[in-house]
Amino acid sequence: MAIKEILVHVDDGARAGLAIDLAAELAKRSGAHLAGLFLGTTPIGPYLMAAELPASFWEAEAQKLEQRMAAAERLFGARAGLSRPTSAG
To answer: What band does 75 get if pLDDT is binned at 50, 70 and 90?
Structure first.
């Protein structure tokens, strides 16, 4: 049975690049499609106190998560040899 899809977890850890490199090489050798997955969460503690936290806290947390997600996407694209399509115009 041939491998058709490879999913690699992409995070902001020190070994993320290595994981992507290995998954990309396996995908190349097997002719498989490579996909990256970033999972981001906020700490559980704030959820327990959600009623006490101002909206600005949640906005800041969302912004941090967006930044981490964008960094993971850039890392994945660079290491997997991908580029984002650019819009014409």
So the answer is: very high
